[in-house]
Amino acid sequence: MARDDIGTLSEKTEAWILPELNSIFDCDDRDDITVKAALYSLFAGGKRLRPMMMRLTSDMLGLPSSIDADVRYFAVTLEMLHTYSLIHDDLPALDNDELRRGKPTCHMEYGEGIAVLAGDLLLNKAMERLFCICEKEPGYIFASSAMAENAGVKGMLGGQSIDIASEDKEISLELLTMLQEKKTGAFIEAAVVTPYYISRKMTREESKSDKTASELRNLAAHIGLAFQIKDDILDVTSNSEILGKSTGKDARDSKATFVTLLGLEGAQKRLEDEILSIRRILAGFAGEGFDTSDYETLTDFLYNREK
Q1: Within a domain: residue 166?
Q2: What does the CA dihedral 166, 270, 97, 191 come to, rounded to 10 degrees?
Q3: What are the φ/ψ torsions at residue 25 (nearest 5 degrees)?
Q4: Integer Cα distance of 10 and 49 in angstroms
Q5: What are 237-282's pLDDT values in tens digits?
């Protein structure tokens, strides 16, 4: 059977999460300017890769359809956290970007103050949602806690912190890798492992010794690095018309990247190594009888993407 291409997977994911996205804010709240700004960024487009990975894990492992609505709930919550991070990352005080997904960034459209509030709103609302679903199903406490942790100093926020502290400085490849494992990789880990966590109503201690959870985290780590390395490559080889965001900004901001530390050829080689690691892990899942075809499509996209 022919497998879906990345465009089809993206369209299916968008259709899958759309009802949940539309239900985030009550109708009475939608006239608020901060809500409008948050929704502007939340519906700005993109391939919805993190919700997509939630679906891919569920489909690959054959998780029961009875939890599909809850997987979707977590997928949208993660997309809210990701969007909050993009809104703040684009601000003049951080990356100072004017373009995101081919559209003006939130602060360019609504001003810096409202953009700060829009990011805060999405973060706060995401945490409200995690509390709400734990009230419904206490077995989801660890999955919710892990997602919140992925957004904090041990995850995305911690990566951002290292990133800012490292501007105009020479840093090691080891530190850069840790930075990106947090900044980019943490939300990808949440996307890849959360469906499995909730399917087992897993505790933190159980997650440490569970073989499948460990392999999913390993898969996420390599996906995260592959995605970031390709981003660094595209920042110097592509243009804003293709990418839908500014290019050359890493050099502008004197930021260390896999390209600046390894050179273009070295970064490409490291990307190939990460892709091979992803394929080895997927081969292990396939050997256990799981359908990895959609994850293979994602892997092809990570390697070949132009935007």
Answers
A1: yes
A2: -100
A3: -110, 140
A4: 7
A5: 876 665 555 555 665 566 789 999 999 999 999 999 999 999 999 9
| Spatial separation of the C-alpha atoms in residues 257 and 177, rounded to whole Å | 9
pLDDT per position as a tens digit, 164-190: 998 888 899 999 999 999 999 999 999
> Which residues does residue 143 pair with via DSSP β-bridges, in sequence order?
none
CA dihedral 229, 232, 234, 239 (to 10 degrees): 160
58 inside domain: yes
pLDDT tens per residue, range 64-115: 999 999 999 999 999 999 999 999 999 999 989 999 988 999 999 999 999 9
Query: Structure tokens of 184?
Result: 């980019």
Question: In a 3-state reduction of DSSP, which class is residue 27?
Answer: helix
Integer CA distances (angstroms), 6 to 29, 48, 49, 53, in order = 34, 11, 10, 12
Strand-pair partners of 99: 104
Q: Which residues contact 111 (CB under 8 A, 6 or more apart)?
A: none
Our count of domains for the chain comes to 1
270-302 in b/e form (b: 16+ CB < 10 A) is bbeebbebbbebbeebbeeebbbbbbbbbbebb
**How high does pLDDT run on average in the chain?**
93
pTM here? 0.93
Domain holding 140: CATH number? 1.10.600.10
In the chain, what is the straight-line distance between the N-terminal and C-terminal CA atoms, in Å?
28
DSSP state of 95: T
Question: Rounded distance, CA 72 to CA 48, Å?
Answer: 12
| Parent domain of 53 | 6-304
Tokens of 198: 């909730």
Nearest-CA neighbor of 222 among 261, 168, 275? 275
